[in-house]
Amino acid sequence: MASSATSNKNNMDDRVYDLVVVGATGYTGTLTAEHIAQFLPTNTKWAIAGRSTGKLDELAVKLKKLSPDRVQPVAETFDLSDERALAQLVGKAKVCISVVSYWQVGEEVVRACVASGTDYVDANGGIYGLKGWIDKYHEQAVARRVTLIHACAVYAAPHDLLTLLLIRELRSRASVQTRKVVVAVVGTPMGISGGTADSIMHDATSSPPDAAAKLQNPWILSPVPGITGGSDDRTDVFGMYSENGLGLLSDTSYSAAQDRHIVHRTWGLLSGSDNGYGSHFQYREYSRAESKISGILKFLTALLTSCVLRFALLRAFAKRFVFPAPGEGPDVKQSRLDRFTIEAVAVGEPEGAQGKAAPRAYGRFTFHGGAGYLCTAACLAQGAATLLSGSRDDVTSGHQGGMITPAFLGAGLMERLCKAGGEVEVRML
Ligand SMILES: NC(=O)c1ccc[n+]([C@@H]2O[C@H](COP(=O)([O-])OP(=O)(O)OC[C@H]3O[C@@H](n4cnc5c(N)ncnc54)[C@H](OP(=O)(O)O)[C@@H]3O)[C@@H](O)[C@H]2O)c1
């Protein structure tokens, strides 16, 4: 990287923008820009960046109409093949939100942020791709004190934050470490965007042959290995089981694997610190089954989806006739009427005498501001605002940079989400 594009974190006051949204013209990027226009302080200096001047101009008009009395974003065009120019562009901002198609061009933005000392937030939950980024850039980011928060989206920010809050509740109320957190995703699955469908298809077809086997290891993103097995949540033949406090659950949550990898990375990054979760900790995620019948239907739907992803002909059919094209996604008006809700139970290490019940805490997070991608837009924009405010959570003590997780924005991010349509409840059972 040319030295003129390289700067460090001491020159933050010289930066032209507080925020830049790279990939602002995509489906998620547009919703994120709209969230910034509606919820972030009106004097925020920001830019929307993309490869198409026409699309950026259209978006700028839309944003002005949405919120005319605020500082309007500057439109910045970039060409990702020009590495130096990209580093100069993101280096104009204190924080970069990346909402590009990650498997195609995400790494270029990460590299530019590390080089220019620009803090960064993304919605990337593609575990195999993230593993590659972490292996390449985590140490560089630590050395440069650049913070990169990944998966700060509907998958996996609420799960990672609620886990953190429940573990704190158990620690402060019952003075115990946590053995497991079980999350139940409530409600029906939301629609997906073209960009997400594209990522899923890419992961299904282009990952190396041993990728699936490697991803079976739930600690692949954690810097230290955790325990495997020993879990007491055994499912039946239809993937169902009951958890005290959560009811009947179905092992069909679409985001279970990716959320588990992210929460386990948080666990690994915190292990050995005063904020550690406990050496026997494991995260599990299910979807809520309203009844045995609905659980069986969920199971069959998940089976069908995995068949579609396994066979090339079915994948091609789904891409052509079922999934939206890149740039498109679920109807936003309808999404605003829907809600995203997760419930969770944290189970402590058994206290004192054998046979004594382990303490349990219950948590619930609802995003009333809309389902799926609207929640992602809020997580990205409010995550960036938390980074900008400099008010990191105390879990970040000892973490001055690196490729970390939404939990590191902690209670500060949860508070901001709650002011933008979220609601959280945490209590002992
Ligand atoms: N973890 C989660 O919960 C979560 C939630 C939402 C989204 N996501 C992820 O977010 C990503 C974006 O999703 P999306 O639905 O918003 O996708 P999208 O609508 O297709 O948008 C992709 C963006 O990337 C830009 N882009 C693609 N190739 C480019 C290139 N060669 N040069 C410059 N820009 C390029 C596009 O620019 P143009 O507009 O010019 O085409 C667009 O701005 C996906 O990877 C998706 O999986 C994750």
Automatic annotation (TrEMBL):
<dbReference type="InterPro" id="IPR036291">
    <property type="entry name" value="NAD(P)-bd_dom_sf"/>
</dbReference>
<dbReference type="InterPro" id="IPR005097">
    <property type="entry name" value="Sacchrp_dh_NADP-bd"/>
</dbReference>
<comment type="similarity">
    <text>Belongs to the saccharopine dehydrogenase family.</text>
</comment>
<protein>
    <recommendedName>
        <fullName>Saccharopine dehydrogenase NADP binding domain-containing protein</fullName>
    </recommendedName>
</protein>
<dbReference type="Pfam" id="PF03435">
    <property type="entry name" value="Sacchrp_dh_NADP"/>
</dbReference>
<feature type="domain" description="Saccharopine dehydrogenase NADP binding">
    <location>
        <begin position="20"/>
        <end position="149"/>
    </location>
</feature>
<dbReference type="InterPro" id="IPR051276">
    <property type="entry name" value="Saccharopine_DH-like_oxidrdct"/>
</dbReference>
